[in-house]
Specification:
- The chain is α/β, with parallel strands linked by helices.
- Helix content is 24%, strand content 21%.
- It contains 6 helices and 11 strands.
- The chain has helices at 72-81, 139-151, 173-181, 191-200, 229-238, 240-253, and strands spanning 12-16, 28-30, 43-48, 51-57, 86-95, 105-106, 110-114, 156-157, 161-165, 186-188, 204-213.
- Strands 1, 2, 3, 4, 5, 6, 7, 8, 9, 10 and 11 form an 11-stranded mixed sheet that branches.
- Helix 2 (139-151) packs across helix 6.
- The longest helix has 14 residues, at 240-253.
- The model is unreliable at 1-6 (pLDDT under 50).
């Protein structure tokens, strides 16, 4: 109909992490707003492999939002309002294991939360909602990611546990040793509550952890120095092209039909009156 406004839509949403502030040449951008305020930046819209993708820089275009101050609820809801059903969340991580080396990719299937005080739910009442996060990451998207990384000959780990710390400081050596001895694989500051909020909105979520360092060093090897922000960005930038290629390959390979349980997360999450 003449004069009708067509609302922008997208199937995929991508959050850019540290050093990752744009994904592809966009077809436009919008200034979104939600009941939780504005997201971290304008939402860029793009077409990748013929599929519509929305992009938000998680920390803002000037990295103005530290991990504990990212507007996670506004970010997730901005994607939801665009019709996004699948989120890809790349982020820089530190390794807690010698065999998980800088430059490797990890498609995490579990998280452990050590953050505090973050706004981590859309359901503050009166409708009490208990969403299961037993398996917080989408298995269908993780399968596509592994296939994509394999096709691009990228070194990856098909599963892993990320421990999420409050930040913005990095871990002490004692903390890092503790996390490592629990058997956890990588460490990050932003995976929580982002993935949990996506689950509350019944959205699929894929984590792409790009290993940039050995956190507080590698036990038994004094030559491996503790992480610094400058080194994180340096390694991330070196691998940015591979990450961009990987996301394009994932978007191409994820089937249009969702066969996972992510889209029914609220089905048994509320008590009947």
């Amino acid at each position: 109909m003449e004069g009708r406004t067509v609302k922008p839509r997208a199937e995929f949403g991508v959050f850019g992490g540290s050093g990752f502030y744009k994904l592809a040449k966009g077809t436009g951008s919008i200034s979104a707003t939600t009941r939780y305020g504005k997201p971290s930046g304008k939402v860029t819209l793009a077409a990748i492999e013929g599929r519509k993708v929305a992009f938000i820089p998680r920390h803002g275009v000037h990295h103005e939002f530290p991990p504990h101050a990212v507007p996670y609820r506004a970010n997730v809801l901005a994607f939801k309002k665009l019709g996004v059903s699948r989120i890809i969340g790349p982020n820089a991580v530190g390794s807690l294991k010698g065999e998980v080396a800088p430059g490797d990719l990890v498609f995490c299937d579990q998280f452990v939360n050590f953050t505090s005080g973050r706004k981590d739910t859309f359901y503050d009442g009166p409708e009490t909602t208990h969403v299961s996060t037993a398996s917080p990451y989408c298995p269908q998207m993780r399968k596509a990611a592994a296939e994509a990384a394999d096709a691009l000959a990228l070194k990856f780990h098909g599963s892993g546990t990320v421990v999420v710390i409050q930040g913005p400081r990095f871990s002490t050596k004692a903390e890092s040793r503790f996390f490592s001895r629990q058997g956890w694989d990588v460490i990050n500051m932003t995976q929580y509550p982002e993935v949990a909020l996506a689950r509350e909105q019944e959205m699929c979520y894929l984590n792409i952890s790009l290993v940039t360092d050995y956190d507080a060093g590698l036990e038994g090897d004094p030559s491996v120095k503790p992480v610094s922000h400058g080194e994180v960005i340096k390694v991330f930038n070196r691998n940015l092209e591979n990450l961009t290629r990987l996301i394009g390959e994932i978007v191409k390979r994820v089937p249009e039909e969702r066969t996972c349980d992510c889209g029914s997360a609220l089905e048994h999450a509320r008590l009947s009156a």
